[in-house]
Amino acid sequence: MAHPALQTTLALVYPPRCLTCGDRVDSDFGLCGTCWRDVAFIGSNACDGCGAPILDGEDIAQGEALRCDDCLTIARPWRKGRAALIYKETGRKMILALKHGDRQEVVHPTSLWMANAVRDILEPRTLIAPVPLHWTRLLKRRFNQSAALANAMAQRLDVPCCPDLLQRFKRTRSLDGMTRDARFRHLQDAIAPHPKRRHRMAGRPVLLVDDVMTTGATLAASTQACYDAGASDVCVVALARVVKDA
Ligand SMILES: O=C(O)c1cc(=O)[nH]c(=O)n1[C@@H]1O[C@H](COP(=O)(O)O)[C@@H](O)[C@H]1O
C-alpha cells in the first residue's frame, strides 16, 4: 500500500470521482448520491429462476419458489438464478462503461453486489466461471467483462474461479436487436467445455456469471456445456437483468 503522505498527494491530484458521472466523491470506486439513488437494486421479492423482480400480479408460486412469467414460459436448464440489478439507469451505464469503455474499476462495487446476491444459493465446493467470449471478440475487447466479474466475485466469496472453464468456439455476432428465438438459435452449439478444464467441473456444482441476462440464451448454452462435462449442479448470476418496461 502507498505511504499515507503519497496517498494524500494522489488524492489531491486525482480526487476520487463518481464511477458513472465523474462528480467528486469521498472514496475510490464510489458513486455520487444521485447516481447511487438510480441504481435499481433487486430486492428479495425476485424470481428464483432468473433474479428478475416479481411484479404485482405476477407472483405465481411453484412450490416454495417464485418464478417470473419468463421463467414459467422458458424452461431454464439451471437450478437457480440471481441478478443484482435491473438493467437500467446507473446499472446500465456502469455495464456499458465496463464493457465498451474499459472501465475495469466498475468491477469493484458490482462484484460485491453480485456476491451478496448469490450467498443463499452457493453450495459447498462450488466452482465459479464466466460465460465465454469468442477469441476474436476477446482480442477486440481485450478482456472478458464477465470473467472480470467472476474473478472478483470469487475472491469476495473465497470460492475458486476458472475463467476458461468454457469456450465459445462459434463466432456469434452481437445479440443486440435479436429476438428471443433468434438468440437461442444463434447460441445453439456455440459454447462447450474447454477440453483441458472439463475435469474441474465433473461431479461438482458450478456458478456461471454473465454481465447481463436478457433472454437467458447465453447462460442456457453455458449451463448445457457444464452438464455435458458432468457438473452436478448449475446456478447462474448476472450483474443485471433486462426487465420489460423497466
Ligand atoms: O455480447 C453481446 O452479444 C451482447 C450485446 C448487447 O448489446 N447486449 C448484451 O447483453 N450482449 C450479451 O448478451 C448476453 C445476454 O443476452 P441473452 O443471451 O439474451 O440473455 C450477455 O452475454 C451480454 O453480454
TrEMBL record:
Superkingdom as given in the UniProt entry: Bacteria
Pfam families for the chain: DZR_2, Pribosyltran
Species annotation: Ascidiaceihabitans donghaensis
Protein name, entry field: Orotate phosphoribosyltransferase
InterPro entries with a match to the protein in the record: ComF/GntX_DNA_util-trans, DZR_2, PRTase-like, PRTase_dom
Chain ranges of the Phosphoribosyltransferase domain: 146-239
Domain Double zinc ribbon: 10-72
Transmembrane segments: none
Protein family per UniProt: Belongs to the ComF/GntX family.
Lineage of source species: Bacteria, Pseudomonadati, Pseudomonadota, Alphaproteobacteria, Rhodobacterales
